[in-house]
Amino acid sequence: MPALETHARFLLRASALLIGLLILWWFVLASPMLYLLKEAAGNFVDIRENPSGDWTLRVPLDATLAATNGRHVPQPVHWVDFDIARTDVNGFTFSLPVYWAIILAAGARRSLRPLLLGTALISAFELASLLVFCQITARGAVARLAGNQDASAKWIRDFGQYLVVNALPYIVPFVVALSLHRGLRGAIFPWGHEPEAAVPSPRRQKKKKGRRIASLHRPERSL
Amino acid sequence: MIFSLCLLCGFGVLLTPRVQSADREFSRALVALSHGLVLACGGHASRDRAVLRAPGGFAIEMRDGCNAVNVTILLWSAILAFPAPWRMRMFGLLAGSAILQSLNIVRFVSLYYLGQYSMAWFDFAHGYLWESLLVLDTMVVFWLWVNRVARIGADHHAGA
């Protein structure tokens, strides 16, 4: 069962690297990464670090709170301040060690370029995620202050927050690794290597005769 | 493109109130299963809906995102986006979901014991390690399925 061995080997190697690199990140790398993230994000939002390590962010946002029973005149808003716990900010830096673990598990050969390029991409993604999170949180705060009960707007904010906090930081490292590491991509999606063999899908073949899926006869080179 | 669309739709549907309510019921069922597993293995625990409580006072609740529905959606999106016969897709969806849910039970029980040992390690394992390992497992499950699809396709071709 060479294929199963390949999978098992990759799974074991990637799991071990994930555990090792995440522990290294947790104890050593998280602080310098947070510092770099703070410096980069500081170009877009004002960030102050409290003695506890938590961050206070000031997000510029132009909005006007309409007059209500409790607020007799419309009130302009130019920024929103909010705190974010250090443990929560950590979530915007941990995608990098996950990405390194996958790339290193995929094999050292021809890994330098995807490692460097992916590191740059993931770093940009983490910064963008933090900024999107800031915007969603600030707009949510303004909507609450304004007493805006628009359910669809709230759902969109919840959805965006779910994506940037709970979904994408875990998924993006894998997607970027598959996009940049040719060996890993070739092993999982074999059609680029051997276009002759195909999986017959009667309905699909009726619609598109030319579309085919390659088989995985060719052994994975770097895995 | 299809993968991204399926993923976004899946997560979007997951956040709708009706599905959230079903999601909570599913979490309770998983906690009941985990509770049964702990007792069957000679451990001690009590259960209150989606909360598993240790005799020492530690308690762990299975919330949204802890029931592996998110990685199941990820796997389903990948399988649905991959061009394969529907019979193979159904097999991948069912078998893959079963594998991921089994792993998630292992994750939940391990976190239950880890939390009694150290909250710092619990936070680390809960927030980062186990979640990343589950996504890695999802990728490998998908990879195994793609291999199976390709092998059956090749056998079919060889027989034709």
Summarize this structure as a short list of keywords or feature phrases:
heterodimer, A: 223 residues, mainly alpha, three-stranded antiparallel β-sheet, 7 helices, 3 strands, 60% helix, 11% strand, B: 160 residues, 5 helices, 6% strand
Write down the oligomeric state.
heterodimer
Give the proportion of residues in helices of chain B. over 70%
Strands of the widest sheet of chain A, in order across it, are: 1-2-3
- The N- to C-terminal Cα distance of chain A equals 15 Å
Structural class of chain B: mainly alpha
Rounded to the nearest angstrom, the radius of gyration of chain A is: 23 Å
Distance between the termini of chain B: 32 Å
Q: Helix segment count of chain B?
A: 5
Structure in words:
The complex is a heterodimer of chains A (223) and B (160). Chain A contains seven helices and three strands. Chain A is mainly alpha-helical. Chain A has one domain. Chain A has a three-stranded antiparallel sheet with strand order 1-2-3. In chain A, helix 1 packs antiparallel against helix 3, helix 3 runs antiparallel to helix 4 and helix 3 runs parallel beside helix 5. The C terminus of chain A is likely disordered. Chain B is mainly α. The radius of gyration of chain B is 18 Å and the shape is elongated. In chain B, a hairpin with a 2-residue loop joins strand 1 and strand 2. In chain B, strands 1-2-3 form a three-stranded antiparallel sheet, with helices on one face. The interface between A and B is large, with 47 and 40 residues.
